[in-house]
Amino acid sequence: MERKPDEYATREARFELQPQPGRRNPSPRLEAARPRIEELLERMTLEEKIGQLAQPFGWTCYTRQADGTVALTDSFKRRAAAGGVGSLYGTLRADPWTGVTLETGLSPAEGAQLVNEMQAYALEHGRHGIPILFGEECSHGHMAIGATVFPVPISIGSMWNPDLYRELCRAVALETRSQGGAATYSPVLDVVRDPRWGRTEECYGEDPYLTSVLGRAAVEGLQGPSGDLGADDAILATLKHFAAYGSSEGGRNSAPVHMGPRELHEIDLLPFRHAVDAGARSVMTAYNEIDGVPCTTNRHLLQDILRDAWGFDGFVITDCGALGLLTAGQNTAEDGAEASAQALRAGVDMEMSGEMFDRHLLSAVHSGRLGEADVDLAVRRVLELKFELDLFERPFADPDRARQVIGSGKHRELARRAAAQSLVLLKNDGGVLPLARSAFDSSGGRAGLDGSSAGTDLPEGFGRIAVIGPNADAPYNQLGDYTSPQPDGAITTVLGGLRAALGDAAGERVLHAPGCRIRGESREGFPAALACAEQADAIVLVLGGSSARDFGEGTIDLQTGASVVTGDSWNDMECGEGIDRSTLNLAGVQLELAQEIHKLGKPVIVVYINGRPIAEPWIAEHIPAILEAWYPGQEGGHAIADALLGDVNPSGRLTLGIPKHVGQLPVYHYKRRTRGKRYLEDDFEAQYPFGFGLSYTSFDYSNIRLDRSSIEADGQAVVSVDIRNTGSRAGEEVAQLYVSDLAASVVRPEKMLKGFRKIALEPGQSRTVFFPIGREQLEFVGPDLTWIVEPGNFRLTVGPSSVEGLSIELAVHADKPAAR
Questions:
Q1: Which of 538, 503, 492 is CA-nearest to residue 639?
Q2: Recorded GO terms, molecular function (predicted)?
Q3: According to the 3-state scheme, what is the secondary structure of 376-430?
Q4: In the prediction, which pLDDT does 440 show?
Q5: What are the pLDDT digits (tens) for 206-251?
Q6: What Cα–Cα distance (Å) separates residue 527 from each residue in 292, 531, 534?
């Protein structure tokens, strides 16, 4: 029986955003714990209370002995006995910043055992039996040795698949909690305005609506479908970075943000508002200032908006080293005591690293800059979350469970599915892709790259492929920042993926040469790469960037863990935290390598593995096929091979526009109507716009309609469109809804994304897609800075990207005041 439009709208409502700000009812566990919390506050000394608010580095609290045993440090024991270990950061983290390697680090079971030992010591030797809260990094997987490395968030955004992302976050939560980690510092809800920013890879993209949808999915996945933080597969989600961190001046990390309140609420705060509504109970402040006020001491952000307006009832933690900036950088506090007092008064509850709180919070109280009641408020919030996480009753991890679930085959398969869904086909002139498996048989027969006689004209006996480029076989380069050390064989590269996919047929037919490094001017690898390419019938050229940290001195900020650009440091890292660029071109001599390969006259496919958009107009013009893979994680090589060979039909879509060159920035799609005139040299349209992505099949949109032509301000309509797969392959299409307010009391963006559906269609199959239209799609921040729906006409456009689609108009009548 055919469904009615309203039934479709209800069934698919999980994709829509319907925030209902307001305080939630406390959980039964928390209600039962309140008397105990007040009793603890009565019994704790001021020093013990401050210990609950400081979060030292966990990896400094243990050492691995020469015989392989693990011992707790004396400093940890002293602090735990004094009641000064309320929380630890990154106890299980392993990377160049921590100095924890495969040799000195811990297996999944050993990590759980360590957490148990630390927890037991704190409970036994502390006066009040308060458990430790272990916080871990999980940007794209639990950042511990042996854990699954999923695609980075910019890849996750490119999936346009919140259900799959929610499933992925469930896996991350399971792996982390199995080792005793109870909190994570994700999701990152920053909206990217300037992709030169090195942390672009950590974000979902440029759009506030898409970021809001994925932020909700992350919270629901990490904290569990029931919202019971005490479950053994749930962890506390921390929203970061609050706020506007992705809108910094010049795309430079921690630079100032120049933004009015209307744009702040409509763009940068929107994802946080929805994630708070989804149940997030922890928020991390951003390093930057907004209009001169540091986010770490911005009471308007942390109290008036976050707590009072949105009803947030969790705790707020600083980013690492943020309080130090107040006295050395932003200079809004004269000393550490004043900086600590400013932060706590503004609404901060915990300091990551704990350095300033440890040294100065006590004197801030004794000097009268802060009252003990202020400290009590923060401690109460931290203790509440410890009870909600059920740490008082179940503080210990299960090493056997950690051994079973961390890095499991099920999670590797999930990583492969996510990577495959995130691949964006940017160009495919002449049907160069997919490569045909039949071309690799032993018959020596003639075959086109797509398995037919049509398309690119290949040499007789096609059957050899050259995999060339600095990212063709560089495992760490495809993982992104915030990644732990990996044992040999844990990561499948593009070269490895193609060889595995072709099996015996690979043999001598899958050739390889790196050609050059990501950075640097050396061309010594060119001759070998060209000789390799000469032997092949088709070339897969794997270029891009790297966020792989190294152990070189001078490349890591020892305070924050961010990489540092210095005059004499060297590695291939050109993206990641602290690595911002003034250009979006390929680094080093990669473009020159591509140009030399192109001269051979053979079919070339460029695969980009990178953490920010690459603007290379020569490649966009001359290379027939381009596949954007971002940092696809440990299974990325398999997913890319599947796409190149046609076993996977690319369905990823861009979540940020890619400019023709860096001088066009910004190119985000929701530019205001008053965006100005074009440049003398060029326009300001993206090379590849937001929402864009090709497929091995084709889709046709038709018959856009509304179930009613007009609604009242608080009413709802449904817009629908028919989508048909008109090609010969099964595929997935991302239908996108954009809304334009044709006349408003303030200047509005020309269009804004307000809905999307990812649907699978067989060849010849059609489906009708429905989008509800109501307050969520029509409201904006009006002249008096309240959210309103104004009467007037709205253009609704549904299509495959931000620059294509079918449109229809909806009239909205003002029947009653609609502000909230």
A1: 492
A2: beta-glucosidase activity
A3: HHHHHHHHHHHHHCCCCCCCCCCHHHHHHHCCCHHHHHHHHHHHHHHCEEEEEHH
A4: 63
A5: 999 999 999 999 999 999 999 999 999 999 999 999 999 999 999 9
A6: 54, 6, 10
Per-residue model confidence (pLDDT) at position 564: 58
pLDDT of residue 816: 54
Q: How far apart are CA 485 and CA 550, in angstroms?
A: 10
How far apart are alpha carbons 460 and 117 in whole angstroms?
Answer: 66
Structure tokens of 503? 């099996």
Structural tokens at position 419: 């990577």
Between CA 493 and CA 474 the distance in angstroms is 7
In the block, tokens 């933004």 appear at 259
Q: Are 209 and 754 in contact (CB under 8 A)?
A: yes
Domains of the chain by range and CATH? Answer: 56-182+391-420 (no CATH), 185-313 (3.20.20.300), 423-655 (3.40.50.1700), 697-813 (2.60.40.10)
646 phi/psi in degrees, rounded to 5: 90, 5
State the pLDDT confidence band at 13, using cuts at 50, 70 and 90. Answer: very low
What is the per-residue pLDDT across 668-704, written as a single tens digit (0 to 9) for each? 999 888 877 778 888 888 999 999 999 999 999 999 9
Q: Are 467 and 460 in contact (CB under 8 A)?
A: no
Mean pLDDT of 616-628: 98
- Classify 157 as helix, strand or coil: helix
Residue 315 has pLDDT above 70, yes or no: yes
- The helix or strand, by DSSP H or E, that contains position 773, with its residue range, turns out to be strand 766-773
Could you give the percent of the chain with pLDDT greater than 70?
91
The answer to whether 667 and 447 are in contact (CB under 8 A) is no
Distance separating alpha carbons of residues 445 and 60, to the nearest angstrom? 62
Pairing relationship of beta strands 792-801 and 752-761 according to DSSP bridges: unpaired
Tokens of 196: 């030169």
d(CA 296, CA 779): 29
Buried b or exposed e, range 738-770, using 16+ CB within 10 angstroms: bbbbeeeeeebbbbbbbbbbbbebeeeeeeebb
Q: CA angle, 714 as apex, 711 and 717 as ends, to 5°?
A: 40
pLDDT greater than 60 at residue 460: no
According to DSSP, the β-strands at 183-184 and 236-242 are parallel
Give dist(CA 606, CA 215) in Å, integer.
31
Alpha-carbon distance of 87 to 52, in angstroms, equals 7
The stretches of 503-547 forming alpha helices (DSSP H) are 526-534
Other CB atoms within 10 A of residue 676 CB:
8
Q: List phi, psi (to 5°) of 656.
A: -155, 145
* pLDDT for 554: 41
- Mean pLDDT, the chain, integer: 91
Q: How far apart are CA 117 and CA 519, in angstroms?
A: 44
Secondary structure element (H or E) that encloses residue 70, with its range: strand 70-72
pLDDT band (50, 70, 90) for residue 323: very high
Contacts of 390 (CB under 8 A, 6+ apart): 29, 229, 230
